[in-house]
Every structure is written in C-alpha cells, then in structure tokens.
Amino acid sequence: MLDLRGHMSNRNESVRFKNGSQQASGIMRLSSLADYAVVMMSAAARHCGRAKVNATTLAAETGIPLPTAQKLVSRLSLAGLLESSRGTGGGVRLARPPAAISLADIIEAVEGPIAMTSCVVAERHDCALESCCQVRPHMGAVNGAVRGALAGVSLATLSRAPAQAGAQAGNAPAFAGAQS
Predict the structure, then answer these.
(1) For site-directed labelling of 166, which of 16, 148, 174, 175 has its Cα 20 to 30 A away?
(2) What does the pLDDT look like over 30-48, one tens digit per residue?
C-alpha cells in the first residue's frame, strides 16, 4: 500500500501508532521503487511501436540499477502493464498504449492500493486516534480525490519531452484535479 502522509507543521513531529512504530514527518512522496517504476515505464513508452526492449537497456537509459529494473519488469508484468518474453527476440513492451496507462496504475502495480492514511484500509487499525477521529469518515473521499488525480496523468504525458508536454498542456491547470 502506498501510504502518503502529509507535512506536519513542526519538522520534529512524528506520529506514533498503536503498534509502537513511528513515522517521521516530511513531504508526501512516492517510494523510490514507485518513482523508478514511473521512470522506467516512461522509457518503455518511448520505445512503444518499436521492437521489444530488455531490462538491461531500460536500466542503461534511465540509470536505474539492473537488479531493480529486473524486479520492476517482473512486478509491472504481473500487473499487466508490461508484456515480457524470454529468449531470442525477447524483452518487454507496454501491454497497452501509453495513453491507456495512468500514473495510478504504475504506482499501484508496485506499491499496492493508494492510501492517504492507514484508516482508509478497513483491516488496518493502527492509529491511536481511531476511536475518536472526526476526520476518518471523510478520508475515503480524500483518498479518492488523490487517486483520481494520479489516474488523470497518463503515461503518454509522462513520456513526452518536457517542451512537448508543456506545449500539449497549453495553459492547463498545475494539477490534475483542477478544472480546465
């Protein structure tokens, strides 16, 4: 599960859960593995329509370590985002067109369901505030909005050269959830 925690006002603050674990405050961000998956899928999309490409080539093009690239190929293939084959002429290619693969698809393939907080997952009960939290009933809507924003960004957009992506977007909103 991708667990995105928000920024707390004091950088020294942290959250302690019932199970004793502690989460330091900080920015909301993807895990390194999810970040690498997005970078690697963008590279694979730039090869779309051509011959299959192997993990070694993707690792070399992106700077992702080869073992990590191989691990990602496996996870992304299991999720149905990449098609892979072994042997002569083997390699990987996108399982769908880049426009049909979203940022949310890639993140969920690597991290599992996107969750802003652990309380949006029914079987998790590790928050000390759970019994008295007035916000918990609304976190499903917040989680849906974040997932919707990530789902609104296609791999086609992510794989374009920056100048090309900016020209395509024109005066588009700064984030996917904004109104055009």
Answers:
(1) 148
(2) 899 999 999 999 999 998 8
Q: Does position 118 have pLDDT exceeding 70, yes or no? A: yes
Strand partners, 85: 91
Residue 73 has a CB neighbour count (10 Å cut-off) of 21
Helix boundaries (H) for the chain: 32-46, 55-62, 66-78, 103-111, 136-151, 155-159, 162-169
Residue among 83, 85, 89, 88 nearest 41 (CA): 83
Residue 11 lies in a domain: no
Residue 170 in domain: no
168 located within any domain? no
Q: Which residue has the higher pLDDT, 104 or 138?
A: 104
CATH of the domain at 70: 1.10.10.10
Total domains present in the chain: 1
